[in-house]
Design goal:
With 145 residues, the protein is an alpha+beta fold. It has a single domain, classed as Hotdog Thioesterase (Thiol Ester Dehydrase, Chain A, Roll). The chain has two helices and six strands. Strands 1, 2, 3, 4, 5 and 6 form a six-stranded antiparallel sheet that branches. The longest helix has 20 residues, at 27-46.
Length: 145
């Protein structure tokens, strides 16, 4: 995916504790980078702090492709975008990119579903979210259910 497709980016601080025995950022740490990027994206698009204990969407699917190892001195950003919005789910794409070399190190495809935390039932994605995602990403109507 082209970098130009991403309208949102947040810097990632690589920490010594993120490194594995091969001196690359551990795969699990990269999952955390994507979680951080997703949260920052939502806060930017929604223009308010996100409290995940009250958020009515949950992560239900994640796929990651590790293209190249991330090293301690890489300058990494997490770029995030919404690909499409359905009635009960939101499909997202993210990438970790080194800003010095412009090399995409890892990509992440994820799906979030509407979720009622009281009843533990699937629920539709809020119309407010659909509108905000659609406006920010300039999504065509056929990508907004």
């Amino acid at each position: 995916m082209q970098t130009d497709d991403y309208k949102f980016s947040t810097p990632i601080q690589v920490r010594m504790s993120d490194l594995d025995p091969f001196v690359h950022v551990n795969n699990g740490a990269q999952c955390n980078y994507f979680d951080f990027g997703r949260s920052a994206y939502f806060e930017y698009v929604f223009q308010r702090p996100i409290d995940w204990r009250d958020m009515d969407m949950v992560l239900v699917h994640v796929e990651m492709d590790f293209r190249e190892g991330i090293e301690f001195h890489n300058q990494i950003v997490c770029e995030t975008r919404v690909l499409s919005i359905g009635n009960k789910s939101v499909k997202m794409m993210q990438q970790l990119r080194d800003t010095r070399t412009n090399v995409v190190k890892t990509t992440c495809y994820s799906v979030l579903a509407g979720f009622d935390r009281v009843t533990h039932q699937s629920i539709p994605i809020r119309e407010e979210y659909k509108k905000l995602f659609g406006q920010f990403e300039h999504l065509p109507d056929d990508q907004q259910a």
